[in-house]
Amino acid sequence: MTALIHHRFLAIAPDLSPSLHDALRQLGPVELPVRNDTPFPEHLARAVAGQQLSVKAARSIWGRVEAACADGPLIEAFCEGRADELRACGLSNAKVKTLLAIGQAARDGRLDGEALRALTPAERAAELTSLWGVGQWTADMANIFWFGEQDIWPDGDVAARKTLERLTSPRRKTIRTAERFAPHRSYLALYMWRWVDARPD
Hints:
single chain, mainly alpha, Endonuclease III, domain 1, 2 domains
C-alpha cells in the first residue's frame, strides 16, 4: 500500500516542482504510524500537554502528570479539584483548563474513541474543537495519528506547510497543492515532517 502511494506521489510531483519530486524520491515510502494504544481521551490530553514544547520537555511534563495522577484512572484526575496538582507538573493555566474540559467531556461520554470513529473526519474535528482549548491542529493530529485517517492535510502545522512551500512555491497555496495528493494527504504531511528531520541544521 505505502509503495503504491509513493509511486503515485512520484508521478504527481514533477508537475508541481522538481524539488518536491526529488525530496519524495530520496525519502522513499513512508508508513502512517497509528498510535491508538491508549484510550482516546488520554491521547488527546497528552497531545494538548505537549503542544509548543520540545519532545523532551513534553515527555518530562507528561511523566510528572502520570506520576501525580497514579492513584486512579488518569482521566478522572482532570477535574477542578486537582487543577493545582496539574499546574505543579509544569502545565500552563490554559493547558490545565483544556485538560479539565477533556476530563469533563470524557466523563460525559463525548470522547469515546469508537463512537468518534463512526464520524467523518470533519464531523470528528468539529466535535473536538468544540472543547475549550482544542483547535484544528489538535483535531488534525488526532485524525491522523489516533484514527488513522489517510486524507488529512494539516495546513495549520507550520513545519508541514512551510516545508511544502519551500519544495514548491510560496506563491502557491499549500491547500491547493495538497489537494493534488488526495485521498492520501496525511502521507504528504508525513513526507514533509520527515524531510524536515532529514535535513542538516
